[in-house]
Design goal:
Layout lengths: L15 E3 L3 E3 L2 E8 L4 E10 L4 E11 L6 H5 L3 H8 L4 E4 L8 E3 H4 L9 H7 L5 H17 L4 H9 L3 H13 L17
Antiparallel strand pairs: 1-2, 2-6, 3-4, 4-5, 6-7
Helix pairs in contact: 5-6, 5-7, 6-7
Amino acid sequence: MKTLDGKTMTSQDATQSVGTALRIAPGFVATAADETTGVETTIEAHYSPDRGRYIITTILNRAIAADFNEDRLKHAAPQAILQVAIPHCIALLLDDSADAKWTTVADLTTADGRIIPPWMAQAVVKRGMKDERWEVIEILYGTAALADLPPVKLIALELDVPERTASDWIQKARAGGWLVGMTSNVGRPANG
């Protein structure tokens, strides 16, 4: 994961505010090598405020082995690279203290691939946890929407709630002023 100027991506490179609690990198360059096919794919993506997500602007495939798969070289799978890269581009503060440090969603992601720790997921689904719930919904929705993944499915999985509940919470969070600058075109619209 690199910044647009070729430096290693850190939480400090997430300079653009999105939503109420997130910052994102304005763009990035990500590279993935597939040793099996002998092909390396590099993408460049930029955040589009109009679309509320990252848009791939460049795809570069190159052979990295003498016996590379010619068909694979012609047909890249940039969406998978985008989805892996996005958590490195989203930063948030975990507390309100004066010395709080920004951290990336990738730094939060657990070994089993979960973004929100189980204790936090259990806490935010309880009654009376509205603001905390909306903050978590914003983190999860932003992570999914910015990568062009279905937010309802991610929220339902992370918080162990039915998709209907996840969809309802997305609508309520948006109505409450959360999720500004993020939209999802995947699946059913969050506000309809």
